[in-house]
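Hey, I'm writing a tutorial for new members on how sequence and structure tokens pair up, and I'd like a real worked example in the thread rather than a made-up one. If someone can provide the structure for the chain below, I'll link this post from the tutorial.
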Amino acid sequence: MKKSNRIYEPHLTIKEVSIPPKGEWVPRLNGWSFIQVKHGAGYYLKPQFNQELETGTMLLVGSGGQGSIRASQLCGLSLHFFNVIPDRMAGLITLNEQRFFEMAAGRKELSLQVFSPGSRVAAKMEELVASQNRGGLLFRLKLFQLLAEVFEDDLGQIVTDTETPDAGKRLEGFLRQTPSSELLEMDFNELAQITNCTSRHLSRIFYKLVGMSFSDKRSELRLSRALELLATSDSKVVDVGLESGFKSLSQFNQMFVQRFGISPGRWRQKHRNGGVPVVQNRPKALFVDGFHAVPAGRL
């Protein structure tokens, strides 16, 4: 399993950022980002694309929509934004749904969507920003629901019929219907029984469908679960490891260091508090929780 250089970012949390006049931010995307202009004026810029931003404008940006946000020369921009990272929602969505969101994030026609002020999506974002309780479970579900509603028609095309004699189709149907968190504790032989095929054949078709081996995918899900618990809970490191599906603290530490190059305890100290400061108009580049802010003339 390849070592990941992905930067951990909090998600399903609304944050506010400010860009000074002439300032420019480059999103460092992980998953999907909803960005709405609270007030001010500016532009969203990417190759062969220039979108004017006004108060209330809403952007939905995936990795394929990578660009920069530039404030106008006369006034700055104040933005609300939040991220949705599907591969950290193993208990809620299936592997097929995860793969859909990953695929859509890289597609030109889906990875950058603009919603005008007053549109249904923009209005819902304003309601969420105005909510009095922005830290509860129901609120986080509403943030994810906004992404699901945008892709409602596309998600509806994911078929759930598994009545087919082909092992590959049976596995694909299983992955469509089953929350990926169930793979955390599932034995490979159990999955072979479900798909009614040999372990050797299952290994081949699983790799073909998912892009990695069963053991690597299960380890990836466990480590994603561990990152979430380390960043959002006060559980002891050993409890995080056991709850994420590792058999012992030593196994958890070994797998974590192998993947991220740092121990779970030190990773928690580094990533536990992820605040977003207000950007000042200064000459040096600033890294701000998911965004790279640079002076306008430096790009």
